[in-house]
Amino acid sequence: MSATPTSRAASPSAPASTSKGWAWLLFSSLFEITFALSTEATDGFTRPGPSLLTAAAAAAGIYTLSQALKTIDVGVGYTVWSGIGAVGTVVLGTVVYGESLTVWKVLAFLLIIGGALGLRISDTLAARKDAAAADAPVARSAA
Q: Are 35 and 86 in contact (CB under 8 A)?
């Protein structure tokens, strides 16, 4: 069995397929945030309700992330997933658990969000380029 990753062949539907992957990634990020926030509520996994929610959110997050990674490169997908999870967890942690939100945290969030948007734009441009290359006529060399 080969350990090499499968190639994602460019096709005319590549941008649409990539958009679906990004939708999966955003959905998966919600599970990541739920997982992190509910872990705090487990009290060391001594409370059954939050413990079950934590386990379910972790499983759902991994599953939906795997769906996203069918069309998004793992380096980009995981980085964005963890970034959204981090920002969402800190923001909602201030609401749910009364954690402090400082100017430095907000600045760090903006940098994370900017990086995630940059990765998203990069992925979209690469998918369009691959789709255009697949549609281009193949140049034949004289043999």
A: no
Residues 82, 106, 25: CA angle, nearest 5 degrees: 25
Q: What is the maximum alpha-carbon separation in the chain?
A: 73
Model confidence at 92: pLDDT above 70: yes
What tokens does 53 get? 């929610």
Q: How far apart are CA 37 and CA 55, in angstroms?
A: 12
pTM above 0.90, yes or no: no
Backbone angles phi, psi at 7, to 5 degrees: -85, 150
How far is Cα 35 from Cα 56, in angstroms, rounded to an integer? 8
Count other Cβ atoms within 10 Å, centred on residue 124. 14
Structure tokens at 94: 């201030």
Spatial contact of 12 and 134, defined as CB atoms under 8 Å apart:
yes
